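Subject: Interface between my chains keeps coming out wrong

I've been trying for a while to get a sensible model of this assembly. When I model each chain on its own everything looks fine, but I need the whole thing in one frame so I can look at the contacts. Pasting all components below, labels as-is. Any help appreciated, I'm running out of ideas.
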Amino acid sequence: MSTTATQVKQKLAVIGNGMAGIRTVEELLKIAPDKYDITVFGTEPHPNYNRILLSPVLAGEQTISDIVLNDWDWYKDNGINLITGRTITAIHRTRRELTTDTGEKFNYDRLLVATGSNPFVLPIEGNKLPGVISYRDIADTEAMIDAAKRYKKAVVIGGGLLGLEAANGLKLRGMDVTVVHVMPWLMERQLDEKAGKLLQGSLEAKGIEFRMQAQTEALVAGESGRVAALRFKGGEQIPADLVVMAVGIRPNTALAEKSGLQISARPGGIIVNDTMQTLTDPRIYSVGECVNHRGTAYGLVAPLFEMAKVCANHLAEYGIGRYVGSVTSTKLKVTGVDLFSAGNFQGGEGTEDITLSDPIGGVYKRLVIKDDKLVGACLYGDTVDGSWYFKLLREGKNVNEIRDHLMFGESNIGDVGHEGNTRAVSMKDTDEVCGCNGVCKGTITKAIKDKGLFTLDEVRKHTKASSSCGSCTGLVEQILMFTAGGDYSATPKMKPMCACTDSTHQHTRDAIREQKLLSVPEVMKTLGWRTPNGCSSCRPALNYYLLSTWPKEYVDDPQSRYINERAHANIQKDGTFSVIPRMWGGETTADELRRIANAVDKYKIPTVKVTGGQRIDLLGVKKEDLPGVWADIGMPSGHAYAKALRTVKTCVGSEWCRFGTQDSTQMGKDLERAMWRMYAPHKVKYAVSGCPRNCAEAGIKDVGIIGVDSGWEMYVAGNGGIKTEVAQFFVKVKTSDEVLEYTGAFIQLYREEGWYLERTVHYVSRVGLDYCKKKVVDDPINRKALWERLQFALDGEPDPWFDFDKARVDQRQFIPIKPVTPQAVTA
Amino acid sequence: MSAIETEMTWRYVCKLDDLPVLGARVLERGEEEGGNVAVFRNDQNVVFALLDKCPHKGGPLSQGIVFGERVACPLHNWTIELKSGDAAAPDVGCTARFDVKINNGDVFVDLP
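Reply #2:
Try treating it as a single job with all components included. I did that and got this:
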């Protein structure tokens, strides 16, 4: 093995200057900018543009220059040799040589074939007449714009996505447009019959005419030789000065086939493996619409971007990342028509439908469910929840428990802070989209245009919109769609923990348990972390997984904890901290209050506030004062700063209340003493009410206990935060010992299986309430084992406010270093 | 070299071992002197010094999680390069940096 500093760069040739090929080059430049000399060949005389946005250009809503993705300078700045207007006619694989239509020859070390797809042309008489075009590139679009200036009658053959966008654009440019479609309803591959009919209705209202179930027999020339009419089977003719064929695409594999690369017979496409290398020649890669991966040829953009990433990764010789296929969704880009579909929206054996149909209001929704999972969605008229359904679909989440309100969308489950805005199009530029980060619509559209953003993640990074609570995600996706043509987010089936690794949360948890990994560096080494010591996102997660999997064995790593859990107080916007002492069950005494009051005076603590969890919050404490405040108050840590048990909120209960049926305060104190110092994937809140009036608000807590005359009802997975989630009934028990055992077992299950930063509501919705019941309610042996494991983990755990050494609290952090007199240095 | 170094004002901070690995300490300075300085140490025993103010909203960088040659601000998770004080893309901003040297396990920062 030897490498030299002056290694000659390898030659990478890219055939195809379109979205998939250039995206691959971009990804490659990001990770290995100096690895290759890159030459790109493009038949079209344009730099790379966004083909998806040809429709808005045709409709007059954007211009060609608006949709250019990489201008000429980009190629120059990145040292890429761009050769446009010439077509590669041959690949000589043994000589590794390309030949252009002008006879020039180029050598390559590695080759990327990204030739895209060709429009399918109907094999009918007259299909080559002047005035008959397909709809694929800038030239076609310009031909249509030009025809609209000079002619009146347009016919579009094909009522699919592209055909309808063409029809809409030509109509807006003043032509009389008829759409001829062979099937009984429009977009039959993306829509069911009802939605297809609704779509037809709203396009008819825009003045477009339709001939459904109509077969074209021939195109007829007029006196000038240009197309003049279209003849149906049966002989009827309609006038046509322009005919646009939009009846589908076929992978463009002619060159590949000629060069001996293996091609799929049906549905077509160059056969590639999971690293996007052609099956025939590992030096030749292929991405995009010309590809056949595991039997599928994709005609949408999101999968192409995913392929690009994997391909670049392999070209850079990182040897990681595999493409395993994509789930796709469709949206129509016709202004004023909202439409979304994904998955199997037609249903079939073993599926159930939930439908909502409001023909007057122009809203239709159909959700297809199979085995308690959402497998398809078709939305018309109101698509704001499209991304939410798509997410449920992709992740294969169990939806049984939200089935009743699934149809009414994510907001029905309790979004707050959007003033009921559900349609991005009707919003003004100054309207706020993201309430958490104060981002307006105009800021988002500007960032998308100026910075060329494509995915939701990119928009989040650049604008922070929807990056906090995420409840405006649907709106942001709509804006992305109208500005960039869609959300091209890669849709990996398995999401890695962070950019440091390909390992998922689940895979990491499993590896830590199965291989008995006992330190953060060991996990990183075993699972192939790419970064030396992770990042602020994965390290806290790993630390928690180790801690919860190997209690008493793993040694906590404070440097892998967020500052709040390192300083054991909650950092505030000005860098000071807040202190919340523990008050068991929310009860306190005159003595405790006196000590708190004295500390407030002594340390000049500016704000004292009562929290929602029935505790007292001291705000604005200087970091160096923290140990003093803790010692003076002399109450245990409230862990109000940690991903841990926070509070057990209680009502006064039967001791005082004339309605109380159970002693909820005592139950709350017992629970809190049993569970405190318990770290968890996220914060955990309990509440205990003494009667069904539920004054402790147990219905929106991770664990809520409600006393009834005959015992206690236990509810789990509630949440009072961003989305108000009502806790679900878990079990009813008789005694307070049972309350401890059942709640302890449930929370231990969550501690052992939850992903970091996953609240109980998300954990339970991921694994299903029935699963939790099976593990805790139905299986007494497992329940006792879980409860014992929790008690084992918590037994003897230190209070971090007092037992610094055992809790591994680095006390140096409370002592700022004072500057020392300047030391004159003479050399 | 000597010409440049004489213009520097090296101040003794602490022993290298007084800095937590993958952590930081605060060097106290009055607001009129420019405010606190954060002194970081990574797992390669490289020490960095930055003004203890995130270019975003002034968060105390000394309290952030240190990884590689970066720190994540504890307030809104901006990532700051320890070497340069630059915010990692796509965020834009820069915080002041100071030269650091280590002599026999003693850490010095060049503070004007």
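Reply #3:
Confirming on my end. Chain B has one domain: 16-102.
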